[in-house]
Structures are given as C-alpha cells and as structure tokens.
Design brief:
single chain; 68% helix
C-alpha cells in the first residue's frame, strides 16, 4: 500500500492544506479591511488599498474557502462518497493553481510573499497534490 492509498496520510495532508488555506483567507480579509498593508500581497506592487483591491481580496478569500471545501471533499472529510468527477478534477485544478501561485510568490517584490507566503504555498502545492493524487473517495477504493 502506497502513502497515497493510506487514508490517514491523505487526511493529514488535507488538514494541513485546510489550515494553510484558512490562514490565507484571514490574510486576504485583513488586507481587505485595511488592517495589514496591501503591499504585502498582490506581488508587492500595490502601494494603496483601492476599493477594487478590497473587492479582489474578498473574492480571493471566497475562492480560497472553496479550495478548502474541494480538498476536504477529495480527502473524504466532507461531501459524498464516491465523489463526483468534478471534485476529483477540481482538486487537480487547485493543485495546479497552487503551483502557479508559488511561482508568483517567489517572483514577488514583497519580502513577505517571497519568504513567508512562498514556502507556505510550496507546502500547499505538495499537500494539494497528495490529496488530488490519492485513491480516497473513488468508487473503487
């Protein structure tokens, strides 16, 4: 039995991903509220919090919340079993998004994105991959 076939391994990866996604939800909402500087986000190139950036941060928080649901469903922690194909495909989309997001974080001029969020998104990409590639939640096992 490989690690990807072990439900506890996949559930642990999903729980780690959920916590990290939740941290990013909170960060986006704090940025939208003007509590943390917007220059920490969005590539570090935005000097001022505009109304459109507020909305964008709230939308990003909602999308990240959706990512939590997708990853938890795929790991068998929420939703129906066997899983709809949409959840399995969406888990791969989340994984791909996190890989691209990681590249963006490391390319950012913001030190916070590069040195804090970058490593966090590496871990998110890895844990999302573990969940997406897992055998949990499939009709055959």
């Amino acid at each position: 039995m490989t690690y990807l076939e072990r439900p506890i391994f996949v559930r642990n990866a999903a729980n780690i991903a959920s916590v990290l996604f939740l941290i990013f939800v909170v960060v986006q909402l704090l940025a939208a509220a003007g509590i943390i500087p917007i220059s920490m986000l969005w590539g570090g190139r935005q000097p001022e919090l505009t109304p459109s950036l507020r909305v964008t941060s709230v939308v990003a928080a909602v999308i990240l919340g959706g990512f939590i649901y997708i990853i938890r469903c795929r790991a068998g922690l929420a939703g129906k079993m066997p899983q709809p194909t949409l959840i399995r495909v969406a888990a791969w989309v989340v994984t791909g998004y996190m890989v691209l997001n990681t590249l963006g974080n490391f390319a950012s001029v913001s030190h916070v994105e590069r040195f804090v969020f970058g490593p966090m998104t590496v871990l998110l990409a890895v844990t999302s991959f573990i969940v997406a590639a897992s055998r949990t939640g499939k009709a055959n096992g």
